[in-house]
Amino acid sequence: MTKRHARISVAIGFAIASILAPHRCVAADSELIKLASKQFPNLTRAERALLEHADVKNVGRGDFAVAGSSDLLDEPSNNPTHADKWDHEREVRATLIRWMYVDPDAIRQVDPQGIRLLGARIVGRLNLSQLRLPYPLSLRNCSVPEPIELASAYIPIFDLTGSHTSEIHAIGVTADTAAFAHGFVASGPVDLLGAKLGTFDAQDGHFASSTGYKRSLAAFNVALNLMYSQITRSANFSNGFTSEGAVFISLSRIGGDLNFDGGRFNNPTGTAIDMGSSRIDGTVWIDPAGPSTGYGPQPTKPFEAFGLVKCEACEVGNMIISDASFGGSVGSPQGFLGGGMFVKHAFFWMKVKLSKQATLDLSGATVGFLLDTEQDWPASGNLKIDGLTYIGFGASPGYASGDANTRLRWLALQPPGYHPQPYSQLAKFLRQSGDDTGATKVLIASGDERYSQYRIGGRFLGWFLKVTIGYGHRPLLALLWSLLVVLVGWIVIRTAFAAGVMRRTYPENDPPFPSVDNYERLYPLVFSLDVFLPFVNLYQEHYWWPNSACTGEITFGGKRLRVPGRWVLYYLWLQIIAGWLLSAIFVAGVTGLIRND
Predict the structure, then answer these.
(1) How many CB atoms are closer than 10 A to CB 513?
(2) Given this model, what pLDDT does residue 10 score?
(3) Who's near 210: CB < 8 A, 6+ residues apart?
(4) Does pTM top 0.70 for this prediction?
(5) CB 224 within 8 A of CB 241
(6) Which DSSP helix (H) or strand (E) runs through 302?
(7) Nearest one of 311, 317, 235 to 278, comparing CA atoms
(8) What are residue 331's phi and psi, to 5 degrees?
(9) Which of 314, 332, 360, 496 is the least crowded, having the fewest Cβ atoms under 10 Å away?
């Protein structure tokens, strides 16, 4: 090569270098990279990308700092499932992220949009506890193999969407948005005890407990803990959410809706969800057909809970449970526990699949309207509604009716034993609806259940009270029985008189005057009334009484029939006793002394 050609080659090289030089100088001249390089030598490609993207002077930044080769969220190379194949250049030191939040000079160089990192592996424990973080942290599709510490921290937005993490310790964290969604996977418990959040989004998030977890949550097999939390807007556990362990939301306050649509909660030997003693101002949705919540597409799978779902003593606007299944391990408690809860408007229970052991427990609950379907009621013995109060039932087609016959089948599903309150509550509803006949039927069914618990003596008493006054709810039945007894007595006395076994008794013997025509006549019907009525004296039995030592005869149907006076006497004794009993229970029934409502 000639010198001339050499000089030309050098000139061309310098020209190319001059073209490329500005692109290299952007990163090299970045104040944030310069600051970081002093503290963190040998920055990786991912770290440089993070610093360059976060630099406040970078006006042409993309959505994320790209640690890999693609800026597409759904690119397979950005799936943290394959993080073990990522090279060293995709690593970001946890201490570098912390430095960006605590170093005053670094904070001034970071854009308010904050840290937005895609597809990186975070090396070391990320400890941001007790810090007031000035800008958001978004780790998308990242791998965080060591625990994240956020206890008592404040952060505007905490976004781990699509990332795979270890356990997260964030007790008392404050954030406007906390996102663990769209493929997020935690291999250990996520502890947000006492968190103060604007929105909590865990749709399509995957949470798990850990046997190696040394804190108190391990004893309860907890995968996600939001106890004592305050969520201003909505909390979302839907669209593919899964938990291998318990989800605790108890003793919390949620200002919007609580969404479980399409979630799967698995803790078959214990509690799957616990939202007891919480207040949810909006609706608890366990219903794929519910309105759009703004959290993505509607779920395609039904809600599944393997273990207890607890909503005891909670307050909610509406509770909608539809297209859901409840189960668990054989011999372990399972089903829905809503004892003592308060539902302001409506409680829906439809298209629900229950295992044979699953319980629906609404003991002591208060609901506005109860809308359920008969085919979705639990197995016999697994419905607990003692203390449940409600305004009414669903009146639209498809819902179980609120009539007496339907609801008596419902009450029959309660556990063995006498439970008076559900009967009186149903009777109250029917009476207020104008169905007095149905209300009486329910109260009589309550009496049947009550006396069925007794031994033979109590059962006989119950039978007697039922047929005579309907346990006090049909006192006029006593009048019908009284009329029947009086009519039978009339026939008996008339027959006895015709047979000649009725004798004169005034005053205890034959009268002194000989004329029979002057003696008081026997009126069989009046005599029967005189014997039957305990507090009325019609003076018929004062003048006449059967002669027990005499036997007479009458002709009936062409045959001679013997009428012993002693049998007439025995009958009158029974009629006197019947008069006392029927009169007493009639008065007791009318005054309400004999009732079980």
Answers:
(1) 9
(2) 36
(3) 167, 187, 188, 189, 218
(4) yes
(5) no
(6) none
(7) 311
(8) 90, -5
(9) 332
- Relative to beta strand 366-372, strand 342-354 is parallel
Q: Which residues pair with 336 in a beta bridge?
A: 309, 360
Q: How far apart are CA 467 and CA 490, in angstroms?
A: 23
pLDDT tens-digit profile of 500-541? 888 888 655 555 555 556 778 888 999 888 888 888 888 888
H or E stretch covering 446: helix 436-451
Question: So what's the pLDDT on residue 503?
Answer: 85
Instruction: Flag the least confident range among 7-16, 118-127, 197-206.
Output: 7-16
Once rounded to an integer, what is the mean pLDDT over residues 44-57? 94
Q: What is the pLDDT of residue 289?
A: 62
Q: For residues 348 and 368, give the distance between their C-alpha atoms in angstroms, rounded to a whole number.
A: 10
Encoding tokens for residue 154?
A: 């404040």
**Predicted local confidence at residue 213, as pLDDT:** 55
Task: Tell me the chain's radius of gyration from C-alpha atoms.
Answer: 42
What is the model's pLDDT at position 542? Answer: 82
Place of tokens 């779902």: 309
pLDDT digits (tens, 9 = 90+) for 405-422: 999 999 999 999 999 999
| Element spanning 456, H or E | helix 456-469
What separation, in Å, do the N-terminal and C-terminal C-alpha atoms of the chain show? 115
Each domain of the chain, given as residue ranges in start order, spans 27-143, 417-453, 476-591
Q: Are strands 246-248 and 222-225 parallel, antiparallel or unpaired?
A: parallel
Q: Which residue has the tokens 């201490």?
A: 95
CA distance 83 to 13: 39
Both tokens of residue 413? Answer: 């599903």
Would you list the DSSP string of 45-102? HHHHHHHHHHBTT-TT--SSEESSS---TT-GGG-GGGGGG--GGGEEEHHHHHHHHH
Closest CA to 294 of 215, 177, 408: 177
Is residue 572 within 8 Å of residue 531, measured between CB atoms? yes
Sequence-separated (6 or more) residues with CB below 8 Å from residue 551: 501, 562, 563, 564, 565
